[in-house]
Design goal:
Elements lengths: L3 H11 L4 H9 L3 H4 L2 H10 L5 H8 L7 E2 L2 E10 L2 E8 L4 E8 L1 H6 L1 H13 L11 E7 L2 E6 L5 E2 H8 L4 H20 L2 E2 L8 E3 L5 E3 L6 E2 L7 H4 L14 H5 L6 H17 L9 H10 L5 H4 L5 H10 L11 H9 L16 H12 L41 H12 L7 H28 L1
Antiparallel strand pairs: 1-2, 2-3, 3-4, 4-6, 5-6, 7-9, 8-11, 9-10
């Protein structure tokens, strides 16, 4: 546990909190607690001035990486092949959102990943629909590529089915009809998703569906420049358990019917709790998608009506011409099976469930595999962001831009210092001792080497 002085300096350096806020927090604490960095951090979390993740990072002496341009990082939410998604706050609007980050190291070392992330930055701006994740902006800040999008509480369809079991026909019909509406919107704008699967469908607290992740999307009919990025002969793009047969042969030879096949496979999973062709390696899965028929739905679950099973089978037809030709047709067919129970209104940030999800992320420690995640940035107080075309965006309000950072830290700490116990020389000695010891060790090693 660091000293209070070290913690307060880290807090000020992070850009998350200012001197008056720290002073107010210290005044509200009893004298013994003011000498306990953990107690100060806990008080800041309780007051909502820091999240649990932020407080822990500051206690570890890691103030950098908690601010990216105008975004304050509250907590990591998840991690995938393209990078990490964080819950963040936009200081310009105070809006809470999800911030998808491509780490600079991955961007430098994996050109294909960077190219795909840049494609997603561009393509996600082409769609806007209530059943597609909304994108607010995308850009680059100090070499960090990011996409700012709406935060969605809830569970992925994969997690929902894995934890709670297969869906009823009525519920599956309603959720997948919403997914079909979102896909229809994307298809009419020329976008093919190419990675429709249960983990890319979010089910919200009010039981609505949202399609996630356009990272592998392609514009229908586009000229492929780099097959390693977009796909093509010899380069499979997509998830094997849900891959359309034609997409397995040439991942650029796709159209809306390819997404419909993958959507049918996802619906099969939602009704049975397993993909159409479980087990086996990639080659085996591709072969079965091309030539084999999955176990019949009514065999796995006799409660599924034969008429509904026919819809799923048609979505999963091997030949594109035998499938539904548009996502709108899928929507119309599924609507016949949703029952008479009225759907709830769409989720909003004012919902209790939304607020609860934010509070849980803000007040609870992150999952162990996410605890070490931070964004490698250096200039904390330059809030000018850039678009994907490297053109400056409107800057957010800076923190005292005309005053040097060192002066701001000194002035802030001068207000806080009287509330800290003990004489000043004790604090100076505590901070200087490690540096003096390190210098002594270095000098000793240097003299030893010279003597030899």
């Amino acid at each position: 546990m660091p000293s209070v002085e070290v913690f307060l300096k880290s807090a000020l350096k992070s850009g998350l909190i200012n001197g008056p806020q720290l002073e107010e927090t210290l005044r509200a604490l009893h004298p013994p607690q003011r000498d306990d960095a953990g107690a100060v951090a806990a008080s800041l979390v309780k007051q909502g001035r820091l999240s649990s993740f932020q407080a822990e990072k500051l206690l570890q002496g890691a103030p950098l990486g908690l601010v990216l341009g105008p975004y304050q990082i509250l907590a990591p939410v998840g991690k995938g092949g393209m990078g990490t998604v964080y819950l963040a706050r936009d200081v310009r609007t105070l809006k809470l959102l999800a911030l998808k980050i491509l780490p600079p190291k991955k961007a430098r070392e994996e050109e294909r990943t960077l190219a795909r992330f840049r494609r997603e930055m561009e393509l996600c701006q082409k769609v806007a629909h209530q059943h597609l994740t909304q994108t607010y902006e995308s850009g680059v800040f100090q070499g960090v590529y990011y996409i700012a999008m709406e935060f969605l509480p809830g569970k992925s369809l994969y997690r929902l089915v894995t934890e709670e079991g297969p869906l009823t026909v009525a519920r599956a019909a309603r959720l997948f009809s919403e997914v079909a509406l979102g896909l229809d919107h994307a298809h009419k704008r020329g976008l093919i998703h190419r990675d429709m699967k249960p983990s890319n469908i979010m089910v919200t607290p009010r039981d609505h569906a949202k399609v996630l992740d356009l990272g592998l999307a392609i514009v229908e009919g586009e000229t492929v420049v780099d097959r390693e990025v977009v796909g093509g002969h010899g380069y499979i793009v997509g998830t094997m358990d849900y891959l359309a047969p034609e997409q397995a042969g040439d991942s650029t030879n796709v159209d809306p019917r390819s997404d419909i096949y993958s959507l049918g496979c996802s619906l099969y999973f939602a009704l049975t709790g397993r993909p159409p062709f479980p087990g086996g390696d990639k080659i085996a899965k591709i072969t079965r998608h091309r030539w084999s028929q999955p176990d019949r739905l009514i065999t796995l679950s006799p409660a599924i009506p034969a008429g509904f099973a026919v819809i799923v089978e048609r979505m999963m037809a091997k030949a594109p011409a035998q499938r539904f030709q548009t996502a709108w047709e899928v929507y119309k067919e599924l609507q016949k099976w949703i029952g008479h129970e009225p759907a709830l209104p769409m989720d909003t940030p004012s919902d209790t469930s939304f607020k609860h999800a934010i509070a849980e992320l803000s007040l609870s420690p992150p999952a162990p595999e996410l605890a070490q995640e931070t964004i490698p940035v250096t200039n904390l107080f330059d809030f000018t962001t850039q678009t994907q075309d490297d053109k400056p965006m409107a800057p957010a309000p800076p923190i005292a831009p005309s005053v040097p950072l060192s002066t701001r830290l000194r002035d802030a700490f001068s207000r806080i210092r009287p509330m800290l116990p003990g004489p000043m020389w004790v604090w100076i000695a505590a901070l200087a001792a490690p540096a003096l010891i390190a210098a002594g060790i270095f000098l000793g090693i240097l003299l030893f080497l010279i003597a030899k």
